[in-house]
Amino acid sequence: MGNVQAVIDLPEQLYLSLSASGLTKERIASESRKLLALKCFRERVLSLGRSAELSGLSKWDFIQFLSDNNVPVVDHEEEELAREFETAERLGERLKK
Question: What is the pLDDT of residue 66?
Answer without folding.
Answer: 97
